[in-house]
Structure formats: structure tokens, C-alpha cells
Design brief:
It is a single chain. The protein has a 9-stranded mixed sheet. Strands 1-6-5 form a 3-stranded antiparallel sheet, with no helix packed on it. The chain is an alpha/beta fold and about 350 residues long. It is built from 9 helices and 20 strands. α8 links the parallel β15 and β16. The chain is globular. It is about 25% helix and about 25% strand. The longest helix is centred in the middle third of the chain and has 15 residues. The two termini are about 15 Å apart.
């Protein structure tokens, strides 16, 4: 299904420029942008995957990953197809690199998705698997339908978007996990087909101009973005520009897509990155895609008390007060918390929207 898009304008040479992301694709009639899902049709830009998904599944919120947004709760997750970056290491390439819209067999209106989340007992809906920036209109409509039913909206995104799209998109989101894929322009240009600066601008925008709860994830790739110098620069930038309380997740790469000859990320690399981040003053630092209880748990940055114990996606310890403070010393733990944690655990439940 096609739906008129927003954030575009006509150029003097007759083409139409899409202004959703910094690629600024300029299209003749019938052409698609690099993301593949935004297309010029009848002298306008349309989103031609509106209402269509590659599938719906209920996940633990920690899988997004979000560790400080209603821990232990289930989240209804879905994606569409396409992406506005060309990451050679993409871990969801079968969805994000798809050029076959016919594979989007699960159809659902925004209202259907919101009702399904409510029916299944989900506290929130995640726009994930591929980047929701490219299906902005669909995501915004779903978020509005969810808000009407008391359901939160979570964006899992690379943050690669323009200022105008950023403003519209995030006024409807409650939380986000932003992929900070590396910390050099050369890494973004060579391995992602994009730029670092717009992502940094998205992160600063979230901190300075919204109430959106957000966390940051960096997939560490051996020999590409895991040097001590780059990790020092990245974590220092986060503290200086976003503060001490934004959680960071360092996750392990596995060979995939166009980077199948590199080794998996050693656990030691993730743990060293965590040490650097903690040393530079980030209060909440996690490792992912490896089994490490200590590196997955949340600690009070003041007294060291375990606030939330985690074994993969299963919660154990819970030492937060009703107001989200450490039970031992009273220091606040930043985030969004209920009085009690959820108990969804590590379950994964596919959900069919249409017959």
C-alpha cells in the first residue's frame, strides 16, 4: 500500500528531493530512493510499504536493547524492508537489504497494531529490525494509535535523519536505542555509506530538546571500530555532550552480510570497552551478544549495589525503590521504571496480524 510521504520538495531540474535523511535522494518519476521504500509517484514522494511488515513478534524489552525502560516487560516488535544506510556488517541484512516488497506479507493498520499490543499485554511497541526513519509516516501513525491506548513507542534506529524529520519523528516516540556505529567519519563512509555527524546531531537533539529516554549501542567489529583511541574519544564525547547517565551497550559482532571473513568479537574487547566507558564517567555500561551476568546487570554508580541483576534476558536482583532509587544508599537510577519489574523473561512469541 502506498501513502503520500512528507519531507520532500521539487527541484529546479524537475526532480523531487527526499528530505527524510541526509542522503537527499533526487528522484525522477518512478525512481526509488536508496532505502527502496520511498518512491516518486505522480509528482510526489510516497511510502509504498505503508501498512506492511516482515512480521510481528513479542520480545523482551532488553533485546532492543533497553535496560532502563520498564525492565522485564514484553514489547511487540516489527519491521518492514529496506534501509537508508549500506552497512557491510548488517546483522539483519535479510530484512534491511531486502528489495522484495512482496515478502512483506503481514499487513496491519496502525490501530490493529495498537490493539494487538494491548491484547497481548505489551507495555510498548518497537519499530525495529530495519530503521523506522524510512517508514516515518507509518511509524508516526502507529505511535499515535498506541498513545491513545496507553502503549509506549520505542524506536530502534541508526539516527541517520534530517532535522525536520527528527523533529516530527521523536515527538511521538517515548524511548529509543540509537546505533552509534563507530566514531570516525571514515568508518561511516567506508562501511556504512553514510556520515557520523548527523547521528551525533540526533543524539544531542534527543538529550537537549526531548523527553525521550534513549540508550546507545555500538557493535564492536575487530580491527574496524574497536581501538582504544576510538573508544576513548567516543565515550568522552558522550559524557561531554549527553551526560553521565545515558546507558551504553557494547555488543559483539558476528560475521555476516559482506563481512564474513572477520572473526567474532572477543569477550575481552567488550569488557575492555566497558572499562574505558566506566573510567570516563558513564554510569551504566553493558555488554551484549555474549553471556556475561556482571556486564549485563545494572549497578548503583554511587555505592556499587546491584540494582537489576540480569542473566541474558531474565531478571534476578531488583533493588530499586518505588521511585527508582537504590535501596542501599538512595541514589536515583536514571530511566523509566515501574514499582515492580516485568517477568517476561527470554520468551519470544510470534504474532500474526492478518490471516
Amino acid at each position: 500500500m502506498s501513502k503520500p510521504g512528507r519531507h520532500w520538495h521539487h527541484l529546479a531540474d524537475g526532480r523531487i528531493q527526499c528530505d527524510v535523511c541526509p542522503r537527499y535522494c533526487s528522484l525522477n518519476e518512478g525512481q526509488r530512493g536508496l532505502c527502496f521504500v520511498r518512491k516518486r509517484e505522480n509528482r510526489q514522494i510516497v511510502l509504498d510499504t505503508y501498512g506492511r511488515s516482515s512480521g510481528f513478534c513479542i520480545d523482551p524489552i532488553e533485546k532492543k536493547p533497553l535496560n532502563h525502560f520498564f525492565p522485564g516487560t514484553p514489547i511487540l516488535s516489527f519491521g518492514t524492508a529496506g534501509c537508508n544506510l549500506t552497512c557491510k556488517f548488517c546483522q539483519n541484512w535479510d530484512i534491511s537489504k531486502s528489495r522484495e516488497t512482496d515478502r512483506l506479507m503481514d499487513q496491519a493498520s496502525p490501530e490493529q497494531i495498537a490493539r494487538a499490543a494491548k491484547k497481548e499485554g505489551c507495555l510498548s511497541v518497537a519499530y525495529t529490525y530495519n530503521d523506522p526513519v524510512i517508514f516515518l509516516e507509518y511509524a508516526v501513525d502507529i505511535a499515535q494509535a498506541c498513545k491513545a491506548l496507553g502503549i509506549y513507542s520505542v524506536a530502534v534506529t541508526a539516527g541517520y535523519m534530517t532535522a525536520a524529520a527528527r523533529h516530527e519523528f521523536y515527538q511521538y516516540m517515548d524511548a529509543a536505542n540509537v546505533d552509534l556505529k563507530g566514531f570516525s567519519e571514515s568508518f561511516y563512509q567506508k562501511l556504512c555509506g553514510g556520515q557520523l555527524q548527523p547521528v551525533l546531531e540526533t543524539l544531542k537533539y534527543l538529550k537537549e530538546e526531548t523527553d525521550v529516554w534513549f540508550e546507545i549501542t555500538t557493535l564492536l567489529i575487530p580491527g574496524q571500530n574497536d581501538s582504544e583511541q576510538e573508544l576513548e574519544a567516543m565515550t568522552q564525547w558522550v559524557v561531554e555532550n549527553l551526560g553521565h547517565g545515558v546507558p551504553m551497550h557494547f555488543t559483539a559482532f558476528h560475521p555476516d552480510w559482506k563481512m564474513t571473513r572477520l572473526p567474532r568479537t572477543p569477550a575481552s574487547t567488550l569488557l575492555h570497552a566497558r572499562e574505558i566507558a566506566l573510567k570516563n564517567g558513564i554510569h551504566y555500561v553493558y555488554v551484549g551478544n555474549i553471556h556475561d551476568k556482571s556486564g549485563s546487570s545494572t549497578y548503583c554508580h554511587h555505592c556499587g549495589q546491584t540494582l537489576i541483576g540480569r542473566d541474558w534476558y531474565v531478571l534476578s536482583d531488583w533493588n530499586l525503590s518505588d521511585t527508582g532509587n537504590c535501596l542501599q544508599c538512595g541514589t536515583p537510577c536514571l530511566g523509566k521504571f515501574d514499582q515492580q519489574p516485568g517477568n517476561w523473561g527470554s520468551r519470544r512469541k510470534p504474532v500474526r496480524m492478518s490471516s
